[in-house]
């Protein structure tokens, strides 16, 4: 459906992974070998926290409906922005129209959210799921995607206080409502959420056949593995990325996140937490 990338670590010029990597996110927008669709040309988005941001800092966002590979603004922005934590997303629309309000990442206060996947037969469950959003949050839903509804349901279910529990409660709701409407596999996808300090990345589908998700190995480990790789000098000791598919083909650089798992990335690195057993 889409491709996305999340970075956390020392402040990094976003072009290092959005443009300059062998299989960068912009390259994936035109050629995505592991994606459900090879081309992801229905919009681009980036959300970033400024260097020196403190807890609760509001991220900036930029959205474009142009294909990422053909948008000069994307290249100008990526070479200018430096950030310690940023999200970026290239979209392959699967029904909802191509418009800026449907581009990821979505933002609410200091939170960013993006999604690769879908809620099956969303038209059947849209009304019930949308009405389950807290009334105080409902005015902030400005687009028409299932992903934005998913984000606001997670906020409704306590994302700010406990992201893992909120994501579980949200998926429970999606699956219950879906099955009430005769949908066999209601939930599909990978989700990334950040509060400015931590990234939570979920890989889950009701069917147990989720979209791909990987994260990078630690930079000190990679420098030991590839001592002659000059490109690694661009990254600090705490630099990590979580990606829909690897940014290069070097063995050991990217580690697949298991099915039905939340990968949590903070200053200390990654740890994985089981989400639930695949249905």
What does this protein structure show overall?
The strands form 2 sheets. The protein has a 7-stranded antiparallel sheet with strand order 3-2-4-1-10-9-11. The protein has a single domain (2-274), classed as Aminohydrolase, N-terminal nucleophile (Ntn) domain (Glutamine Phosphoribosylpyrophosphate, subunit 1, domain 1), CATH 3.60.20. Helices cover 23% and strands 29% of the residues. By secondary structure, it is an alpha+beta fold. A hairpin with a 2-residue loop joins strand 12 and strand 13. The chain is built from 7 helices and 13 strands. It has helices spanning 15-18, 25-30, 72-80, 122-131, 146-156, 163-180, 219-225, and strands at 2-13, 44-49, 60-64, 82-91, 106-108, 111-119, 187-194, 199-205, 214-216, 240-243, 254-256, 261-266, 269-274.
Supply database-style keywords.
single chain; 279 residues; alpha+beta; Glutamine Phosphoribosylpyrophosphate, subunit 1, domain 1; 7-stranded antiparallel β-sheet; 6-stranded antiparallel β-sheet; 7 helices; 29% strand; globular
Produce the secondary structure layout.
Blueprint: E1 2-13, H1 15-18, H2 25-30, E2 44-49, E3 60-64, H3 72-80, E4 82-91, E5 106-108, E6 111-119, H4 122-131, H5 146-156, H6 163-180, E7 187-194, E8 199-205, E9 214-216, H7 219-225, E10 240-243, E11 254-256, E12 261-266, E13 269-274
């Amino acid at each position: 459906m889409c491709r996305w990338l999340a970075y956390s670590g020392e402040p990094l010029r976003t072009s290092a992974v959005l443009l300059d990597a062998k299989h960068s996110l912009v390259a994936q927008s035109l050629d995505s070998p592991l994606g459900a669709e090879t081309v992801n040309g229905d919009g681009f988005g980036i959300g970033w926290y400024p260097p020196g941001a403190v807890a609760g800092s509001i991220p900036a966002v930029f959205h474009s409906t142009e294909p990422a590979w053909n948008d000069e603004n994307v290249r100008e922005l990526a070479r200018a922005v430096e950030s310690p934590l940023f999200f970026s997303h290239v979209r392959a629309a699967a029904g909802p129209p191509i418009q800026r309000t449907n581009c990821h990442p979505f933002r609410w206060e200091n939170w960013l959210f993006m999604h690769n996947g879908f809620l099956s037969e969303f038209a059947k469950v849209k009304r019930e799921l949308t009405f389950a959003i807290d009334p105080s949050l409902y005015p902030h839903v400005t687009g028409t995607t299932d992903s934005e509804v998913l984000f606001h349901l997670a906020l409704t279910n306590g994302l700010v206080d406990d992201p893992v529990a909120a994501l579980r409660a949200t998926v429970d709701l999606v699956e219950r409502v879906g099955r009430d409407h005769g949908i066999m596999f209601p939930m599909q996808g990978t989700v990334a959420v950040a509060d400015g300090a931590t990234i939570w990345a979920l890989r889950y589908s009701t069917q147990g056949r989720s979209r791909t998700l990987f994260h990078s190995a630690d930079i000190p480990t990679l420098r030991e593995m590839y001592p002659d790789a000059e490109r690694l000098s661009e990254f600090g000791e705490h630099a990590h990325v979580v990606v829909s598919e690897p940014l290069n083909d070097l063995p050991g650089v990217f580690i697949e996140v298991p099915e039905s798992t939340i990968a949590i990335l903070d200053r200390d690195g990654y740890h994985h937490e089981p989400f639930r057993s695949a249905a």
